[in-house]
Amino acid sequence: MNTDYTKGKWLIGLNNEITDDSAAQNEIATVERWDQRPWVSNANLKLIAAAPEMYEALLLARMFVGNQLVNLKGDGNEFTSIKEIIDIVIDKATNG
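The structure assignment produced for this chain is given below.
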């Protein structure tokens, strides 16, 4: 599992950039500001800045989740393992 991402807390800068929390505040990403829909840009910034914490939470959830099945479509016909869902997302984040 590849975990070569910038560790630590990610911060939102004044110019729509995501930086690490080091003294140098190294830039990780920049989000384009949409003038017509600034709330979307703000939501994207918050989502990206939370990525390291979400990744760690996902790994923790994967360790402790049982073998529950969920019906994602809500029709009662197709059930998916929560572990499988988490594994797909972890793989997408680390190998995709």
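Interim note for the steering committee: The beta strands are 10-12, 17-20, 27-30, 69-70, 80-81. The mean pLDDT is 90.
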